[in-house]
Amino acid sequence: MPEPKKVHQGRNIRRFREMLNLKQEAIAWELGEDWNQQKVSLLEQKEAIDDAILRQVSQILKIPVEAIKNFDEENAVNVIANTFNSSDFKGNSAVFNIKPVFDPKGYPNS
């Protein structure tokens, strides 16, 4: 039986931070005066992170600690690939229920 793949917590923090469009400096500022951009960069390189720091970072990112501890990009890609099929993205308005309506009276300055 294959050994379970280790989750790289620092890399997951970086991925979530980037998805939220936050800079390392912003995370450092939220973590306190002992932190700076370089220290956050080093944190993102660590495979395992202390639970207390994980809790702080999860609060800053507004995501559960479990998301950082358990996120596996390969599994996420597999879930997405197996959940959607290509026809879902070919303008099928039933999937997205997109029906644009233009009403010039609804806009200011018209």
TrEMBL record:
Residues 13-68 form the HTH cro/C1-type domain. InterPro entries: Cro/C1-type_HTH, Lambda_DNA-bd_dom_sf. This is HTH cro/C1-type domain-containing protein.
